[in-house]
Design brief:
This protein has 268 residues and is an alpha/beta fold. It has 8 helices and 11 strands.
Length: 268
């Protein structure tokens, strides 16, 4: 029997990289993007944040990045924490005239462009090889496939040796094979010690395979393993419509209804 999902609002006492305590955050005078949200990102964890469009997923990432300040509550980051960020690939201008190597090297704000040191070149080769794109260093970014483009931006984030990697919809707009490759890549990075948080609409292709999920719709609706939170009750509270969940090979399989399809593929 699955154990109950964690109670929303309860923050774990285990050492964490980032902690949100009763955070409320708004854009201007509109309705809150997040309301009384609490969760902790443990060191070494791999967490997915799921929810419909407008649920506050990207806002949560921006708070963890330090790009936003909550109107109420607090966001606490571990001292000296290095954070890497991978935006949605749809937001990038892929016609910008740079090669893969240049795109990654430009992530170092302190470097003297266009010259790179021997140490930077060695670090670049290591990161690209780690992501399986070592042979693409000289290729223009507009010549890449969707999966390769995503790996380039992961390389940019990893170039700064982060402790925490934040990714916004890493499997959006890619095919099934690329989604599987991305999942394996992220799992390998996490196994090597990198803490990862991703937002995703991909309940079956990505979220169901993650160790820990946060179901979010302005408020936290559930926190726990996929089998604990991908339930009809929690998903209905999260997405605002009845949803069916089956079990396949020991994993939850969410049957997406019409209401769900209206939210899939749009950013939050």
């Amino acid at each position: 029997m699955s154990k109950p999902a964690s109670t929303p609002g309860r923050v774990e006492s285990i050492a964490t990289h980032v902690r949100l305590d009763h955070v409320t955050c708004s854009y201007g005078k509109g309705a809150p993007a997040l309301d009384d949200v609490s969760f902790a990102v443990r060191a070494g964890s791999f967490t997915g944040i799921v929810g419909p469009s407008g649920s506050g997923k990207t806002t949560a990432l921006r708070l963890m990045l330090g790009q936003m300040v909550p109107g109420a509550g607090s966001v606490t980051r571990a001292s000296g924490l290095r954070v890497g960020y991978v935006p949605q690939v749809e937001t990038i201008n892929w016609n910008f005239p740079v090669t893969v190597a240049e795109a990654v090297l430009m992530s170092n704000a302190g470097r003297r462009w266009p010259w790179s040191t021997r140490a930077e070149k060695g670090r670049l080769q290591d990161v690209l090889a780690r992501l399986g794109i070592g042979d693409l260093a000289g290729r223009h970014i507009r010549q890449l496939s969707g999966g390769q483009q995503q790996r380039v931006f992961i390389a940019r984030a990893l170039f700064g040796s982060p402790d925490l990697l934040l990714m916004d919809e890493p499997t959006s707009g890619v095919d099934v094979r690329t989604r599987h490759e991305m999942l394996h890549l992220l799992s390998d990075l996490n196994d090597a010690g990198l803490t990862i948080v991703v937002t995703t609409h991909d309940l079956n292709g990505l979220a169901a395979h993650l160790p820990r999920l946060i179901c979010l719709n302005v408020r936290v609706m559930g926190i726990g393993a996929p089998n604990d939170v991908l339930t009809p009750e929690i998903l209905e509270r999260t997405y605002g419509a009845p949803m069916e969940v089956l079990e396949h090979a020991g994993m939850p399989l969410v049957i997406e209804g019409r209401a769900m399809h209206r939210t899939i593929g749009r950013s939050s």
